[in-house]
C-alpha cells in the first residue's frame, strides 16, 4: 500500500525515519469546522503563531523532540521526549478579515475560522493533539484554498486514500523547521505566509481572502479577536495552528501499542477535533518501561486530561486495561473512562492481581498501588450495550457486543457524520458461554479491528472441543496430570463448562481443580452478569446456573504433589508468573503429564517458548528446566479468525479498515485480502505511526418544510435525463443554517423584492389590425413553444408563461405593428428568446 | 389504562398500553378501543414498563399489526413473568363454556350492579394463552437506555430510565427539529431501579405526562413503615399475614425492608412464603439485571454480591418460594407466617385460598400494598370478614408535587395529560393541590379523543454534499447574516434528504440543438435570483454616463424617476422597489443596461 512507508521493524535503537509522500491537492472551500473553543479551563496558555522567525524558533523548541522516542516496536529502549502536543499549550487560530485589517497583520490567505485541527507536522511528536476543541459546527463558504495545506492533503480519490506516516525529518533539524521547508518547497511566498500565521498583505490568495472575509459570520470574527488577543499574550506557542487550520476534516489514528504487535493495546484516535484513547493495556512480554504505552507521546508536559476527551476500555484483559491506573493516577488523567459494567466490575480485580504479582512477588517499586486502582476506577463511567453515550455535545460513543470475554465490547466513536469503530478483541462464533459479536451496518469511516488470527481459519469449534477432551481424557486415563494455564476469567469458564459436562457424561472420577481464590469469585461474576452470556445459558439459568460447578473444586498448593491423575486450571494463562508457572515447574519433568495452552501466548513468556518448541528453559536463578511433559496448543482463545474478521468487515461496511493487535506478517496477508474483497483501503500502522484519513462529511442544514414539500410534490425521483433542480437560499446566521425559498429568505430578512422588468419593442411588418396581429403571434408561438403555456387573453394580449406580449399600432407607419414584449428578470431567458424569435417575423398566414 | 398514539411524519408511534382489567370477571379483559385505530397502520409500539404491556398479545395477535415493539430487556423478562402468572392463574380454573348472551344491552340492563354498569362489554375478550404471549414477545425488539433508534429515517426514539421499575422507561420521540417526551410511570424516589433520567427530557416541545400515582395522598415511605409494623404486630400475636401482590416490583422493596426489620422486630423465626408460578424466576431475574439497578445495588454486584438481599433470605431459609400451594408447600407450611401471593385483585390465584383459610380469624391480617385495585371492592365478595384489613398502598410513581417540580426542571413547551389530572379527584374536589399546575396550562385528552399538538413543523434536516457546498458563494447581507443561493439536485432516500451538485449542463452543440436546449433550459438551468434593494438615481445616471450613454435625462415622477436615454430610445423607470427598462429590441443594449442595474441590487 502506498503511503505508509515501512516502519523499522521493531528496531530497538536509533531514530525511526520514515518517508512520506506528498501530493498537491485541491482543498474544499466549504468547511465543516468543528471550530474551537478553549475547552474547560485548560490551564495551558493559548498561543498564536507569530512571525515566521519566531515560530521557527519556537517550534525549534517545542518541536525539538527526538524522533527516536517513538513508543515503538517491541524492543524500543529509549523513551520519547516528544509529546503529541505542543509543550506550552494550544494554538488558537487567528482569524482576521483582511479588508478590516487589524494592525500590521493582514488576514490569512485562507478562510478564517477553520478549525485549527492539527499542527502541521503530521508525524512529529510535537503535535498538539488536544487543542482543537470544537464549538458548534460551522460551515465556511468559499474560501481560498490554503496553499500550504496542499502539502498535507492526500488525494481525495474516494477509494484510494493514502495513509501518511511521520514526515521524514533529517535528524539535525527540528521537526517544525522541516515542515516549514516542505511548505516552502510548495511555493516560497505561501510557505512563508503560512506558518507565520499572518501572510503579508500582498500575498497571493489574499484577494480571495478579501472576498471570503466579508462572509465570515460575526461570531467567527469575534473569535478572530480572541485569537489575536491570545496571540499577543503568549509568546511561546508553536507555529502550528495555521497549518492545522487549513487541513480538511480527517481522522487520525496512532497506535501507541498493539500496532503490528499483540499486547499493550493503546490506540489514539483523533476525529472531528476530538481525541479518544482506545484501551490502555500492558505488555506481558516486558517487565520494564516497555510494558506500558508511552503516554509522553500524547504530551510531554501538559496534562493528559487537556489532550484527551475520553478513554475507552474494550474489555478487562490486562493487555487492554493493565496500564490504566498508571495512566490515570501516575501520569495523570482525570477525564472520563468508559467501559461496560462487567468490565468495570472485573477490571479492578485483575489489576489488583497484577499489582500483587508485580509488587509482592517480584518486589517492584514505583508500581501503582491498590489505592490508585480504586481512584482510577472512580473515573470510570459504565455504559450499557447500544446505549448512546454523549461524551460531550458532539462526541458520542456506543458499545456493541463483542463476545470475547464477559463484558467485552466494540465501540463506535462518532462526531457528526464521521465515525470510527474499534472492535477491541472479538469473537464471531458463539462459544459455550458467550454469544457472537454483532454490529449493525453502521458504515464507519474507519474500522479498527484486531487481527490476532489474521491468517488462521479455524476448524469448527466442535472438533477442537473433541480434541481437547480426548487429550485430557487420555492423559487422565494413563494417570498423568493435566495443567491448563488460563486467565481467571474468560476461557477458564468455557473450559470448565466443557469439562464439567464431559465429566458428568463419562462419569470420570479424577479431580478437577481451579487455582486461586479468584475462581469462585469469577464464577460469581458470570452468574450476576448472566445477561452478557449466550442465549442458551441465559434461558436456562433459572433452572440451572451453568456457572455452579459440581466437579470442579478449589485448588490448594499441596495438591500439586498428590499422586494420581488430576486436571488443574491455573492462572495466569501464558505461564509467565504465578501459580501456573509453579505447577508447570513441578510437572514439567514427567512425560506422562501434559500442559494444554488454550490461548495465545505473547513473545517472551514461558508459554510462548514451549509452544515454539523450546524444551530447555532458563528459569530465574540460571536454573535450566527440561520440559518432558507433552505440550499441546488448542486455540480456544476467543478471537475472530480470518473468516470472522472478514465477516465483521462485511457487517459494518467501513470505508477503510485498520489492523491492530496482530503480528505484522499475518496482518500483511489479511490486509491484502481485505483490500481485494471489499475494495477498501486497509492500514496496519506500527506503534507510533500515524494514519491520516481525510473525510468529507456533508453539511447538515435545516430546509424549510415548505420548500421541501414543494419539491417533493413534483415527483420523488429525479430522472437522470432531466434532473430537476431545487432552488433556494441558504441563510447563515450565527451557527445556524437554513435553506429556504428565495421569497422566504427576503421575508425573513425584512427586505422588499425589487422587481426588474424589461419591455422590448419588436417591430413587425403587418398591416392588419392589432387584434389580428396578436392572434397570429398567438398561433405562431403556440406552434413553436409546445412545452409552454401560451394564452390569448380576452384583452387581446398574449402570454407565454408570465411573459406578456401586446400588439400596438406604430405611431407613424400603419404597415408596421409594434409588439411590446414584457418580462421580469427572473424570466430573462425565455423573454430574450421570445424577442429574438419574434424579430424573425411571423410565418405567412394562410390567408 | 394508558395508551396514546402520536403521528409524526406520517408514522404512527403507539405508546403502550396497559389493559382495562376487570377484576370481577377475571377471564376477560379489554384493551383499547380498537375501532378508533387501525392497528395495521401502527408502525411502532413503545413499552414503558412491564405493567404496561399486559395487553400486548391482544394487539400483536390477530389485529393485522405488523410493526415493531420496543422494550427494554427487564421489561420483557418480567412482563413475561407477569403474563405467565396471569395465564397460569386463569388456566387453573378452566371454564367449559362461557355465557355471552348477557352482553346484549337489554339483558345487561337488568343485571345486578357491577355487570349493569360495565361499559363496552362487547369488546371484552378471553384471556390470552401462553402461546399468544410467546408470539407477542417474539415481536419485541430489545433496547437499552439512551439507545437511539432510528425509525424510517424520519424519527428517532430513545428510552430513558424512569425510575419506577426494573427497566421502566420514558420515551423521547424526536425528529431533527421537534421533540416529544412521553413520561409514563416515573418515580423520583430511590428504590431499586436506576434513577429517573430527567436531564434528557429537557427542551421538549411536548411532554406527554401519564401514569401518575394512583394514591396521591399516601407517602410510600410511611406506608412501608406501616406495613412492617402491622406485619410484626400480627405475627407477634400469633396471626398470619397475607400480602396480595404482583410477583415482581414492590415485593423486592418489601423483602428488603423486611430483611432489615426481621431481626430488630424479633421475627427471625417466622417463615416468609412467596407463592407464585413465577416466584423463583422473579427472584432469580431480579439478581441479574445489575445494569438496570440503582447505584448502590450496582456496586454490590461489583463485589460480587447479589444486589438484592432476598438472596440471603432464601439462603438462610427465611424466605421460601413455591410455584403453588400444592406440592412442597403443603409439607413445609407452618403458622404463623407471612404469605406473599397473587393476584392482588383477590379474584383468582392462590390468594383466594388464603382468604378463605384465614378470613374467619381476627388474628390474621391482610395487607394491601398494590395501588391498582380498590381494596374495598376486592374484599366485597369475602364479607363478612373477621380478619383485619390494612391498606398500605405503595405507589412510588410521581405525585403532583413531584410533577410540578419535574416540569419546572424540564420546562417543556407544552404539557399533554389525561383529563383527570387537570382537575382534583372527584372524591376530594377541594384539594386543588391534587392536579397538574403548569404554565401554559396542560392540554388534556379524553379517551378516544384526537388532540392536535400545537406546533408546526417548519424545518427538516437536509445534507449538503461537500462538493456542492464548495460551490456556494455566500454574501453578507447584514452583520452576522450571510446568504448563498443554492441550486442543487434533491435526492431523497429513506426519508433522508441530500442535496447534490447539479449535473454540468451538456456543452451546447449545433445551432439548432442549441435553440432547443434554450427552450428546455428554464426547467433545469440555474434559476434567476430574486433581487432586492433600491437604485440611487444620481449614481445610476453617473454610471450610465461613465459607460458611454451621453444624453441622459432624468424626470421626476410621483413614485420615482424616469431616466431617458434619447439616443437609444430607451426609458428606464426607477421606483423604490421596481425598475422597468423599456427599449427597442436590441439585446446588446438591454444586457448592458441590465448589468448596470444589477450592480445596485442584491441577489437572493
Q: Which keywords apply here?
A:
heterodimer; A: 847 residues; alpha/beta; 7-stranded mixed beta sheet; 29% helix; disordered N terminus; B: 604 residues; 6-stranded parallel beta sheet; 18 helices; 31 strands; 28% helix; elongated; Beta_Casp (chain B)
Question: Would you write up a description of this structure?
Answer:
Chain A: This is Integrator complex subunit 11. The complex is a heterodimer of chains A (847) and B (604). In chain A, 29% of the residues lie in helices and 19% in strands. Chain A is built from 23 helices and 32 strands. In chain A, strand 30 (798-800) and strand 31 form a beta hairpin. Chain B has 604 residues and is of the alpha/beta class. In chain B, strand 1 (4-8) and strand 2 form a beta hairpin. In chain B, helix 2 packs antiparallel against helix 5 (130-137). The interface between A and B is large, with 101 and 100 residues.
Tell me briefly what this model is.
Chain A is an alpha/beta fold and 847 residues long.
Number of helices of chain A: 23
Mean pLDDT of chain A: 71
Portion in helices of chain A: 25-40%
Biggest pleated sheet of chain A? 7 strands, mixed
Helix and strand content put the structural class of chain A at alpha/beta
Q: Strand order within the widest sheet of chain B?
A: 9-10-11-12-13-20-21
GO molecular function (chain A): hydrolase activity; metal ion binding; RNA endonuclease activity
Pfam family, one (chain A): Beta-Casp
Organism (chain A): Equus caballus
Domain Metallo-beta-lactamase (chain A): 263-480
What's the structural blueprint in terms of helices and strands?
The complex is a heterodimer of chains A (about 850) and B (about 600).
Chain A: E1 31-34, H1 52-62, E2 137-140, H2 175-186, H3 188-196, H4 206-213, H5 218-233, H6 241-245, E3 250-257, E4 266-271, E5 274-278, H7 304-307, E6 310-312, H8 318-321, H9 324-332, E7 337-340, H10 341-361, H11 370-378, E8 380-383, E9 388-390, E10 395-401, E11 409-415, E12 418-422, E13 446-450, H12 461-477, E14 481-485, H13 491-506, E15 512-514, H14 518-528, H15 535-540, E16 552-554, E17 566-570, H16 578-587, E18 594-597, H17 606-611, E19 616-618, E20 624-626, E21 630-633, H18 642-652, E22 656-660, H19 664-678, E23 681-683, E24 691-694, E25 699-704, H20 705-713, E26 725-733, E27 736-740, H21 742-748, E28 755-765, H22 770-784, E29 790-792, E30 798-800, E31 803-809, E32 816-824, H23 828-839
Parallel strand pairs in A: 5-6, 6-7, 7-8, 12-13, 13-22, 14-17, 14-18, 15-16, 15-17, 18-21, 22-23, 25-27
Antiparallel strand pairs in A: 1-2, 3-4, 3-24, 4-5, 9-10, 10-11, 11-12, 19-20, 26-27, 28-32, 29-30, 30-31, 31-32
Chain B: E1 4-8, E2 11-16, E3 20-21, E4 28-30, E5 42-47, H1 56-60, E6 68-72, H2 73-92, H3 105-108, H4 113-117, E7 125-126, H5 130-137, E8 140-143, E9 149-151, E10 155-161, E11 169-174, E12 179-184, E13 206-210, H6 220-236, E14 241-244, H7 250-264, E15 272-275, H8 279-288, H9 295-301, H10 310-315, E16 319-322, H11 328-332, E17 338-341, H12 351-358, E18 365-368, H13 375-379, E19 388-391, H14 400-410, E20 414-418, E21 443-445, E22 459-464, H15 466-471, E23 475-478, E24 481-493, E25 496-500, H16 511-524, E26 531-532, H17 537-546, E27 552-556, E28 560-565, E29 570-575, E30 578-584, H18 587-599, E31 602-603
Helix pairs in contact in B: 2-5
GO molecular function, one term (chain A): RNA endonuclease activity
GO cellular component, one term (chain A): INTAC complex
Organism (chain A): Equus caballus (Horse)
Amino acid at each position: 500500500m502506498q503511503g505508509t512507508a515501512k516502519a523499522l521493524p521493531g528496531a530497538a535503537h536509533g531514530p525511526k525515519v520514515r518517508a512520506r509522500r506528498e501530493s498537491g491537492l485541491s482543498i474544499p472551500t466549504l468547511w465543516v469546522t468543528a471550530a474551537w473553543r478553549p475547552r474547560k479551563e485548560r490551564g495551558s496558555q493559548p498561543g498564536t503563531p507569530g512571525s515566521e522567525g519566531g515560530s521557527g524558533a519556537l517550534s525549534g523548541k517545542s518541536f525539538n523532540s527526538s524522533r527516536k522516542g517513538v513508543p515503538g516496536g517491541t524492543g524500543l529502549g529509549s523513551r520519547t521526549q516528544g509529546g503529541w502536543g505542543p509543550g506550552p499549550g494550544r494554538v488558537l487560530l487567528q482569524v482576521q478579515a483582511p479588508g478590516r485589517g487589524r494592525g500590521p497583520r493582514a488576514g490569512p490567505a485562507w478562510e478564517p475560522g477553520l478549525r485549527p485541527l492539527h499542527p502541521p507536522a503530521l508525524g512529529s511528536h510535537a503535535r498538539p493533539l488536544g487543542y482543537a476543541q470544537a464549538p458548534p459546527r460551522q460551515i465556511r463558504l468559499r474560501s481560498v484554498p490554503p496553499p500550504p495545506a496542499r502539502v498535507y492533503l492526500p488525494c481525495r480519490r474516494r477509494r484510494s486514500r493514502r495513509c501518511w506516516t511521520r514526515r521524514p525529518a533529517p535528524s539535525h533539524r527540528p521537526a517544525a523547521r522541516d515542515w516549514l521547508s516542505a511548505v516552502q518547497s510548495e511555493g516560497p511566498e505561501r510557505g512563508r505566509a503560512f506558518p507565520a500565521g499572518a501572510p503579508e498583505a500582498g500575498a497571493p490568495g489574499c484577494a480571495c481572502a478579501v472576498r471570503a472575509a466579508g462572509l465570515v459570520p460575526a461570531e467567527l470574527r469575534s473569535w478572530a479577536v480572541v485569537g489575536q488577543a491570545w496571540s499577543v499574550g503568549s509568546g511561546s506557542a508553536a507555529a502550528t495552528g495555521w497549518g492545522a487550520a487549513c487541513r480538511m476534516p480527517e481522522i487520525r489514528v496512532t497506535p501507541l501499542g498493539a500496532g503490528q504487535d499483540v499486547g499493550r493495546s493503546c490506540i489514539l484516535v483523533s476525529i472531528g477535533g476530538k481525541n479518544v484513547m482506545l484501551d490502555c493495556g500492558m505488555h506481558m512480554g516486558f517487565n520494564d518501561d516497555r510494558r506500558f504505552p508511552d503516554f509522553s507521546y500524547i504530551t510531554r508536559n501538559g496534562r493528559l486530561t487537556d489532550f484527551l476527551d475520553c478513554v475507552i476500555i474494550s474489555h478487562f484483559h490486562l493487555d487492554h486495561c493493565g496500564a490504566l491506573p498508571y495512566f490515570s493516577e501516575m501520569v495523570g488523567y482525570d477525564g472520563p473512562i468508559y467501559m461496560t459494567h462487567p468490565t468495570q466490575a472485573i477490571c479492578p480485580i485483575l489489576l489488583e492481581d497484577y499489582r500483587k504479582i508485580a509488587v509482592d512477588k517480584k518486589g517492584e517499586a514505583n508500581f501503582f498501588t491498590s489505592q490508585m486502582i480504586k481512584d482510577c476506577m472512580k473515573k470510570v463511567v459504565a455504559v450499557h450495550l447500544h446505549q448512546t453515550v454523549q461524551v460531550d455535545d458532539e462526541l458520542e460513543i456506543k458499545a456493541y457486543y463483542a463476545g470475547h470475554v464477559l463484558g467485552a465490547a466494540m465501540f463506535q466513536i462518532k462526531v457528526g457524520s464521521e465515525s470510527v469503530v474499534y472492535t477491541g478483541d472479538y469473537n464471531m462464533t458463539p462459544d459455550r458461554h458467550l454469544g457472537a459479536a454483532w454490529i449493525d451496518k453502521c458504515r464507519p469511516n474507519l474500522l479498527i479491528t484486531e487481527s490476532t488470527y489474521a491468517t488462521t481459519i479455524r476448524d469448527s469449534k466442535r472438533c477442537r472441543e473433541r480434541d481437547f477432551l480426548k487429550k485430557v481424557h487420555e492423559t487422565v486415563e494413563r494417570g498423568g496430570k493435566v495443567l491448563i494455564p488460563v486467565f481467571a476469567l474468560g476461557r477458564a469458564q468455557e473450559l470448565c463448562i466443557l469439562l464439567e459436562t464431559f465429566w458428568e457424561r463419562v462419569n470420570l472420577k479424577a479431580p478437577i481443580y481451579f487455582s486461586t481464590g479468584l475462581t469462585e469469585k469469577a464464577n460469581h461474576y458470570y452468574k450476576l452478569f448472566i445477561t452478557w452470556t449466550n442465549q442458551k445459558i441465559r434461558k436456562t439459568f433459572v433452572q440451572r446456573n451453568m456457572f455452579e460447578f459440581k466437579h470442579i473444586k478449589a485448588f490448594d498448593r499441596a495438591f500439586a504433589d498428590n499422586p494420581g491423575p488430576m486436571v488443574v486450571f491455573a492462572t495466569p494463562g501464558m505461564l509467565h508468573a504465578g501459580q501456573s508457572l509453579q505447577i508447570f515447574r513441578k510437572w514439567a519433568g514427567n512425560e506422562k503429564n501434559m500442559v494444554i495452552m488454550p490461548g495465545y501466548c505473547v513473545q517472551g513468556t514461558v508459554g510462548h517458548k514451549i509452544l515454539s518448541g523450546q524444551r530447555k528453559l532458563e528459569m530465574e536463578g540460571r536454573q535450566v528446566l527440561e520440559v518432558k511433559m507433552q505440550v499441546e496448543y488448542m486455540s480456544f482463545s476467543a478471537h475472530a479468525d480470518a473468516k470472522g474478521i472478514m465477516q465483521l468487515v462485511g457487517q459494518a461496511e467501513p470505508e477503510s479498515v485498520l489492523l491492530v493487535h496482530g503480528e505484522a506478517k499475518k496482518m500483511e496477508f489479511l490486509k491484502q485480502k481485505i483490500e481485494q474483497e471489499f475494495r477498501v483501503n486497509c492500514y496496519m500502522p506500527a506503534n507510533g505511526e500515524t494514519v491520516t484519513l481525510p473525510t468529507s462529511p456533508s453539511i447538515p442544514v435545516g430546509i424549510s418544510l415548505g420548500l421541501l414539500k414543494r419539491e417533493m410534490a413534483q415527483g420523488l425521483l429525479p430522472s437522470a435525463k432531466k434532473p430537476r433542480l431545487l432552488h433556494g437560499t441558504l441563510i447563515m446566521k450565527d451557527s445556524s443554517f437554513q435553506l429556504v425559498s428565495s421569497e422566504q429568505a427576503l421575508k425573513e430578512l425584512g427586505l422588499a423584492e425589487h422587481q426588474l422588468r424589461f419591455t422590448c419593442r419588436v417591430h413587425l411588418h403587418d398591416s392588419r389590425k392589432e387584434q389580428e396581429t396578436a392572434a397570429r403571434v398567438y398561433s405562431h408561438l403556440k406552434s413553436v413553444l409546445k412545452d409552454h403555456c401560451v394564452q390569448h387573453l380576452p384583452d387581446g394580449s398574449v402570454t407565454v408563461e408570465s411573459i406578456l406580449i401586446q400588439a400596438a399600432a406604430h405611431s407613424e407607419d400603419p404597415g408596421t405593428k409594434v409588439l411590446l414584449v414584457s418580462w421580469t428578470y427572473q424570466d430573462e431567458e425565455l423573454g430574450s428568446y421570445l424577442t429574438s424569435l419574434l424579430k424573425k417575423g411571423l410565418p405567412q398566414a394562410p390567408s | 389504562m394508558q395508551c396514546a398514539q402520536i403521528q409524526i411524519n406520517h408514522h404512527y408511534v403507539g405508546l403502550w398500553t396497559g389493559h382495562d382489567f376487570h377484576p370481577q370477571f377475571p377471564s376477560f379483559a379489554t384493551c383499547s378501543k380498537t375501532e378508533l385505530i387501525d392497528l395495521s397502520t401502527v408502525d411502532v409500539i413503545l413499552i414503558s414498563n412491564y405493567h404496561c404491556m399486559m395487553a400486548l398479545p391482544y394487539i400483536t395477535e390477530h389485529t393485522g399489526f405488523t410493526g415493531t415493539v420496543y422494550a427494554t430487556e427487564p421489561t420483557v423478562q418480567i412482563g413475561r413473568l407477569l403474563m405467565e402468572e396471569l395465564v397460569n392463574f386463569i388456566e387453573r380454573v378452566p371454564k367449559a363454556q362461557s355465557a355471552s348472551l348477557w352482553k346484549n344491552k337489554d339483558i345487561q340492563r337488568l343485571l345486578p350492579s357491577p355487570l349493569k354498569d360495565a361499559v363496552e362489554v362487547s369488546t371484552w375478550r378471553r384471556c390470552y394463552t401462553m402461546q399468544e404471549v410467546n408470539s407477542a414477545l417474539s415481536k419485541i425488539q430489545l433496547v437499552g437506555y439512551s439507545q437511539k433508534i432510528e425509525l424510517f429515517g424520519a424519527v428517532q426514539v430513545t428510552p430513558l430510565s424512569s425510575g419506577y421499575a426494573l427497566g421502566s422507561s420514558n420515551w423521547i420521540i424526536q425528529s431533527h427539529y421537534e421533540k416529544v417526551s412521553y413520561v409514563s410511570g416515573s418515580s423520583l424516589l430511590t428504590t431499586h431501579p436506576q434513577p429517573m433520567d430527567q436531564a434528557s427530557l429537557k427542551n421538549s416541545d411536548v411532554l406527554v405526562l401519564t401514569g401518575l400515582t394512583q394514591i396521591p395522598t399516601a407517602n410510600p415511605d410511611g406506608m412501608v413503615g406501616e406495613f412492617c409494623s402491622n406485619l410484626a404486630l400480627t405475627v407477634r400475636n400469633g396471626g398470619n399475614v397475607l400480602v396480595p401482590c404482583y410477583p415482581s416490583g414492590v415485593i423486592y422493596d418489601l423483602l428488603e425492608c423486611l430483611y432489615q426489620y426481621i431481626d430488630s422486630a424479633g421475627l427471625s423465626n417466622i417463615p416468609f412464603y412467596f407463592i407464585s408460578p413465577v416466584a423463583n424466576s422473579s427472584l432469580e431475574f431480579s439478581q441479574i439485571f445489575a445494569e438496570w439497578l440503582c447505584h448502590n445495588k450496582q456496586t454490590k454486584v461489583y463485589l460480587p454480591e447479589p444486589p438484592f438481599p432476598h438472596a440471603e433470605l432464601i439462603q438462610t431459609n427465611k424466605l421460601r418460594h413455591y410455584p403453588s400451594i400444592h406440592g412442597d408447600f403443603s409439607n413445609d407450611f407452618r403458622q404463623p407466617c407471612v404469605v406473599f401471593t397473587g393476584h392482588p385483585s383477590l379474584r383468582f390465584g392462590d390468594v383466594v385460598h388464603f382468604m378463605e383459610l384465614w378470613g374467619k380469624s381476627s388474628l390474621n391480617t391482610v395487607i394491601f400494598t398494590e395501588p391498582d385495585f380498590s381494596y374495598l371492592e376486592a374484599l366485597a365478595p369475602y364479607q363478612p370478614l373477621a380478619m383485619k384489613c390494612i391498606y398500605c398502598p405503595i405507589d412510588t410513581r410521581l405525585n403532583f408535587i413531584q410533577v410540578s417540580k419535574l416540569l419546572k426542571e424540564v420546562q417543556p413547551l407544552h404539557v399533554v395529560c389525561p383529563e383527570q389530572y387537570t382537575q382534583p379527584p372527584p372524591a376530594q374536589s377541594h384539594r386543588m393541590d391534587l392536579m397538574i399546575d403548569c404554565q401554559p396550562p396542560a392540554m388534556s385528552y379524553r379517551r378516544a379523543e384526537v388532540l392536535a399538538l400545537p406546533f408546526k413543523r417548519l424545518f427538516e434536516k437536509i445534507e449538503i454534499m461537500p462538493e456542492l457546498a464548495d460551490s456556494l458563494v455566500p454574501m453578507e447581507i447584514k452583520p452576522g447574516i450571510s446568504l448563498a443561493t443554492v441550486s442543487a439536485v434533491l435526492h431523497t432516500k429513506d426519508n433522508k434528504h441530500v442535496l447534490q451538485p447539479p449535473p454540468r449542463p451538456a456543452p451546447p452543440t449545433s445551432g439548432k440543438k442549441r435553440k432547443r436546449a434554450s427552450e428546455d433550459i428554464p426547467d433545469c438551468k440555474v434559476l434567476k435570483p430574486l433581487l432586492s434593494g433600491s437604485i440611487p438615481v444620481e449614481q445610476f445616471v453617473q454610471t450610465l454616463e461613465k459607460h458611454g450613454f451621453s444624453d441622459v435625462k432624468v424626470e421626476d415622477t410621483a413614485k420615482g424617476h424616469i431616466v431617458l436615454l434619447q439616443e437609444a430610445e430607451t426609458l428606464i423607470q426607477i421606483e423604490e422597489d421596481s425598475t422597468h427598462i423599456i427599449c427597442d429590441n436590441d439585446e446588446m443594449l438591454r444586457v448592458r443596461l441590465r448589468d448596470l442595474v444589477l450592480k445596485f441590487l442584491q441577489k437572493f
